[in-house]
Automatic annotation (TrEMBL):
PANTHER family per the UniProt record, alphabetical: COBALAMIN BIOSYNTHESIS PROTEIN CBIB
Function: Converts cobyric acid to cobinamide by the addition of aminopropanol on the F carboxylic group.
UniProt KW keywords: Cell membrane, Cobalamin biosynthesis, Membrane, Transmembrane, Transmembrane helix
Organism classification: Archaea, Methanobacteriati, Methanobacteriota, Stenosarchaea group, Halobacteria
Protein name: Probable cobalamin biosynthesis protein CobD
Species, as recorded: Halorubrum glutamatedens
Family: Belongs to the CobD/CbiB family.
C-alpha cells in the first residue's frame, strides 16, 4: 500500500505544480486558522490553554482530514485509486511549494524597482517589520523565508506522510487505513506548524507549548531540508562540499530557533552570501547581502531542493 501512497504523493506534487494552492474558502489550513483565532479570542492567555490547544488542535485537524480518506476507502474497497487520490488531495492541502516560491520571487523582482511594494509583499513570507528594510535586506528576507518555508511548508508534511504510511503499512493495517494514517500524519504536522505560527510568540503564555512542540516536530525536517539544499547547490557553490557543510552548520547556530537556522544556513553557504534579520541574527557576517541575481538563484535552488525532497519521499514509499 505504500505504492498507492507514492501515487498520492505524485498527485499532490502535480496539484501544487498546476494549481499552487486551494482556494482560501476551501483551504483546510485556513479553516484551522479561523478556529484557532476564534478560540484565542475567547480563552485566557495561559500556559494550560496553550498545552490544551497543542494537544487537541493538531489531532482534531488530523482526524478531520483523515476521515475523507477512510470514507472513500469504505465506498471503494476494491480499488486503491480513489482512496489514494483523496489522500493526495489532503497532502496537497497540507503542503506548499509553488506559491511560497512565487511570492519570494516577486519580492526579489520588486526590491530594486518598487521597494515599498516589495516590503508589502514580504509580509506574506516573513513575520518581521519591513518598513525600514533596505532593498538588500528585503532580498535577504525573501531568501531566508524561501529556505525556511521549504522546511515548514513542504518537507515536514512530506516526512509526516511518509512516516505515517510506512508505520501503518508495517503494522499490517488495511489499505485505506494506511493512506488515512499518511494523510493524517501530514495534517497533524501542518496543524502543529499552524498553531506555532499563530501562538508561538515569546510574549504569549499560551504560546509556550505550541512553540516547544513545533521545535520537536521540526528538528528532523529542518536538517533534512538543509541537506537537500546542500545537495542541490553543491555544484554551484564556490567552495567544496565539506567547506559548505561546515559553514552551513556554523551559520545554523546564529538564530535563536533550534531549527530555522539549518535551511537558511545551508542556503547562505551555497550562495556564499550574508543573510540577516536586523537586531536578531546574522548568518555569514563576513559576506555581502545577496544581490538580485544571487537571490534569484537562491529561490531556484530552493525550488530544486523541494523537487528533490518529493523524489526522495516518493522513492521511499515505492521501495
Amino acid at each position: 500500500m505504500t505504492l498507492a501512497a507514492a501515487g498520492a504523493l505524485a498527485l499532490a506534487a502535480a496539484l501544487d505544480r498546476t494549481l499552487s494552492e486551494p482556494p482560501s474558502s476551501l483551504h483546510p489550513v485556513a479553516w484551522l486558522g479561523r478556529v484557532v483565532a476564534a478560540l484565542d479570542d475567547r480563552l485566557p492567555d495561559s500556559r494550560s490553554v496553550g498545552v490544551a490547544l497543542a494537544v487537541v488542535a493538531p489531532v482534531a485537524f488530523a482526524a478531520l482530514l483523515a476521515a475523507p480518506v477512510i470514507a472513500v476507502g469504505s465506498v471503494f474497497p476494491a480499488s486503491a485509486v480513489p482512496t489514494a487520490a483523496t489522500a493526495g488531495v489532503v497532502l496537497f492541502a497540507c503542503s506548499s511549494r509553488r506559491m511560497l516560491l512565487s511570492v519570494a520571487g516577486d519580492v526579489i523582482d520588486l526590491a530594486d524597482g518598487d521597494l515599498e511594494a516589495a516590503r508589502r509583499e514580504l509580509r506574506a513570507l516573513a513575520g518581521r517589520d519591513a518598513a525600514d528594510l533596505s532593498a538588500a535586506h528585503v532580498r535577504s528576507a525573501a531568501v531566508e523565508s524561501a529556505a525556511e518555508n521549504l522546511a515548514d511548508g513542504l518537507i515536514a508534511p512530506l516526512l509526516g506522510f511518509v512516516v505515517g504510511a510506512v508505520l501503518a503499512s508495517y503494522a499490517g493495517l488495511p489499505p485505506a487505513v494506511v493512506l488515512a494514517a499518511a494523510a493524517g500524519a501530514a495534517a497533524w504536522v501542518k496543524g502543529v506548524n499552524t498553531l506555532d505560527s499563530m501562538l508561538g510568540y515569546r510574549d504569549r503564555r499560551a504560546g509556550w507549548a505550541p512553540a516547544r512542540l513545533d521545535d520537536a516536530v521540526m528538528w528532523l525536517p529542518a536538517r533534512a531540508t538543509a541537506l537537500l539544499i546542500l545537495a542541490v547547490g553543491w555544484g554551484a557553490a564556490s567552495t567544496d562540499p565539506t567547506a559548505s557543510l561546515g559553514r552551513a552548520r556554523s551559520a545554523a547556530l546564529a538564530p535563536d530557533s533550534p531549527n530555522s537556522g539549518w535551511p537558511m544556513g545551508s542556503l547562505a553557504a551555497v550562495l556564499d552570501v550574508r543573510l540577516a534579520k536586523p537586531d536578531a541574527y546574522t548568518l555569514l557576517a563576513e559576506r555581502a547581502l545577496p544581490t538580485t541575481p544571487e537571490a534569484r538563484r537562491g529561490v531556484r535552488i530552493v525550488s530544486r531542493a523541494g523537487w528533490l525532497g518529493v523524489g526522495v519521499a516518493g522513492v521511499s514509499l515505492a521501495l
